[in-house]
């Protein structure tokens, strides 16, 4: 099975452990980090969503004009624009980029953050809205004749989009770890995304999603897991670097994008799961380290894989063996880490998968 690597780009440098040194929107840095990911062998880059940060589709358009093959996974929250407009927006972007757009659907797990954009629906109501929204998106991309819709949230008449995605539709990446998320996600997701938990917990989540997919008569989606690899030339140096990063978390005035205000008891299930894993111990499996999640309040994908490139590659392959074929990897030093991942980590994972595939062909 092929494996995809997703990175993360932003318009400003910095992270939970590294102070920002550029303006919030720095075109030169945006270009540099996008090209670094392309040159390092990443397939895609995620553009995250925050109520206070630059709008992802605009950033994707800028970065796509300065790259050639890199795809852009644009995080998008249903509910803040009409689905008919969203369908045209992303189809237009897909056309201008030559089919290099994918969508990460974020239903939203933080009530406070949602309300900053004027959304006061409950969590379950948000998932119901997402379900209706994504159904409209797919129909808008695929229908060549006008159609009308009257649902619980949206109503319109005689809509048809003249602009379509390059390949007829746009891949949907879906996030969420609650039962409501599973129920909604399996109806629409091409890839289901998880944050970096221990192997047993990821296996449990994969089984839950597959069971939900079977219940609705749909094939299971692909699976993605997100990590923050911390590499070193030796195990000892990797762990020294990891401890140094941990010491800076909380000391750096991080952008609001990275903060979790309710650190002890976050509202979203994904953060709760990361903190539960951290409560069981800092180290799990081959190389998973949860101390960074605990220190930051698990605001996003914050668990690390620590070790040499060989160790971390084997750790990623442990998840691959569970059925994970997409890895979102981003560093605590975003630009330099992306370059480092491209030197050894990404090639090591791909080489081992190619070796296994070749062995299977010989055996067959």
TrEMBL record:
Species, as recorded? Paractinoplanes tereljensis
Q: Which residues form the Luciferase-like domain?
A: 14-325
Q: Which Pfam families match?
A: Bac_luciferase
PANTHER family assigned to the protein according to its UniProt record, in alphabetical order: ALKANESULFONATE MONOOXYGENASE, ALKANESULFONATE MONOOXYGENASE-RELATED
Question: CDD domains from the entry?
Answer: Alkanesulfonate_monoxygenase
Cytoplasm is among the record's keywords: no
The protein's superkingdom reads Bacteria
> Which InterPro entries does the annotation name?
Luciferase-like_dom, Luciferase-like_sf, SsuD_RutA_monooxygenase
Keyword Transmembrane helix on this protein? no
Q: What is this protein called?
A: Alkanesulfonate monooxygenase
Which terms are listed as keywords in the entry?
A: Flavoprotein, FMN, Monooxygenase, Oxidoreductase
* GO molecular function, a single term: monooxygenase activity
């Amino acid at each position: 099975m092929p494996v995809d690597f997703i990175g993360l780009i932003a318009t400003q440098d910095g992270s939970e452990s590294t102070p920002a040194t550029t303006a919030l929107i720095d075109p030169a840095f945006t270009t540099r980090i996008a090209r670094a990911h392309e040159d390092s062998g990443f397939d895609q880059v995620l553009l995250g969503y925050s109520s206070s940060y630059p709008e992802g589709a605009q950033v994707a358009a800028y970065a796509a004009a300065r790259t050639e093959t890199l795809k852009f996974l644009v995080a998008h929250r249903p509910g803040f624009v009409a689905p008919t407009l969203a369908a045209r927006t992303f189809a237009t972007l897909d056309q201008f980029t030559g089919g290099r757009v994918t969508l990460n659907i974020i239903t939203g797990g933080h009530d406070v953050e949602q309300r900053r954009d004027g959304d006061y629906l409950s969590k379950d109501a948000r998932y119901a809205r997402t379900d209706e929204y994504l159904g409209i998106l797919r129909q808008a991309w695929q229908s060549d004749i006008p159609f009308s819709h009257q649902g619980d949230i949206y109503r319109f008449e005689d809509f048809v989009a003249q602009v379509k995605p390059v390949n007829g539709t746009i891949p949907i990446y879906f996030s969420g770890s609650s039962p409501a998320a599973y129920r909604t996600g399996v109806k629409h997701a091409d890839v289901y995304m998880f944050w970096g938990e221990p192997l047993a917990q990821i296996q449990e989540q994969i089984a839950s999603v597959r069971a939900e997919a079977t219940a609705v008569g749909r094939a299971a989606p692909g699976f993605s897991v997100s990590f923050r690899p911390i590499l070193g030339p030796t195990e000892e140096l990797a762990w020294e670097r990891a401890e140094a990063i941990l010491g800076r978390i909380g000391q750096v005035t991080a952008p609001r994008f990275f903060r979790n205000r309710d650190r002890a008891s976050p509202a979203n299930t994904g953060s709760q799961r990361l903190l539960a894993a951290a409560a069981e111990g800092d180290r799990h499996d081959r190389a998973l380290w949860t101390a960074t999640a605990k220190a930051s309040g698990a605001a996003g994908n914050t668990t690390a894989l620590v070790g040499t490139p060989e160790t971390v590659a084997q750790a990623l392959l442990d998840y691959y063996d569970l059925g994970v074929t997409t890895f979102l990897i981003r560093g605590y030093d975003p630009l330099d880490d992306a370059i480092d991942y491209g030197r050894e980590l990404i090639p090591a994972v791909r080489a081992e998968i190619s070796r296994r595939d070749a062995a299977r062909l010989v055996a067959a």
